[in-house]
Amino acid sequence: MLETTHFTDIDDISASELDRVLTRAADIKSGDDETRLTRATLAMLFEKPSTRTRVSFETGMTQLGGHALFLGPEDIQLGHGEPLSDTARVLGRYGDAIMVRLFDHADLLEIAEHSNAPVINGLTDDAHPCQTLADLLTIREHVGDFDEVQAAWVGDGNNVGQSFVLGCAMAGIDLTVATPPEYAMDDEVIARAAELGQAPTVTTDPEEAIDGADVIYTDVWISMGQESERHQKLQAFEGFQLNEELLADTDAKVMHCLPAHRGEEITGDVLEGDQSIVWDQAENRLHAQKGLIVELLDE
Ligand code: CP
Ligand code: NVA
Q1: Could you say which protein family the record assigns here (predicted)?
Q2: Which of 6, 114, 216, 252 could bridge to 85 as Cys pair (CB 3.0-4.6 Å)?
Q3: What are phi and psi of 255, to 5 degrees?
Q4: Which of 163, 152, 154, 151 is nearest to 193 (CA)?
Q5: Any atom of ligand 1 within 6 Å of the Cβ of 51
Q6: What is the ipTM of this complex?
Q7: What is the pTM of this model?
Q8: Which CATH number is 10-127+285-297 given?
């Protein structure tokens, strides 16, 4: 079992626990680990839309012998005035774990404070640690040992990027981050990465970031909830698109957490090209989260 009760960000677990979750995920994926969590229930609360997170958790719970419940805020009393703290206390008494996708990270922490069942972050404005688990599993499969991997993050310093920075620091992956100056990762995240192992190299030049990289990772420029910033962000991210010109001299693998906006942060040719590993990455959400759930819940 993991030391932590909750999984609010990737560094709630230690580096050795991260390795254990990834190994368990790989064993579950290969069929070597047949752990079952019979009758376990995962309550899933979504304030934002989702394809991968919703379906991979729901499918994963079914495959483990348990059950997942989809709860939109409008479906439950939360959307009609019941406080988060009361919702958390009640869900935590019914469910074996609660997975939440929310806007405000502070709301996630409030749920964790009041729930006596483990709370798993399925994305907030600040973090997406379940994505990081899948990303690291995919890198290990496609590239190899983390201490020999050079990775580049190109694009927005957003939730997916921030958890990836922390995960790379914990795993010992050599990471360079290229963002426009006004959309950099939070200083606090860079400082946490330094404490965990190694802070990424930070630049505003995508070409510098991808030089020598084995994997190049991007995400949407306009995250859910940022629609009003669209015009301003599109201007700021000029030159940050993963396209054939930027990738002309590299055979690095290309990663994207999806959903992708073809023609914005990545071209259709690159997303569908030989270097892309995005579909394996998406599939690994399922395996990685099963590894996490059994490590959180299994005795
Ligand atoms: N990558 C990811 O979390 O996708 P969804 O928004 O579809 O869940
Ligand atoms: N950064 C994106 C990730 C979606 C999975 C968003 O928050 O919308």
Answers
A1: Belongs to the aspartate/ornithine carbamoyltransferase superfamily. OTCase family.
A2: 114
A3: -120, 150
A4: 163
A5: yes
A6: 0.99
A7: 0.98
A8: 3.40.50.1370
